[in-house]
Amino acid sequence: MPRNVNDIIKGLSPALRKKVEARAAVLIAEEMTLRELRRARKLSQERVAKELGIGQEGVSKIEKRADLMISTLRKTVEAMGGSLALVAQFPDSEPVILSGIAEDSSEKSTARRTASVGA
Question: CB burial class (10 A; 0-12, 13-18, 19+) of residue 74?
Answer without folding.
Answer: buried
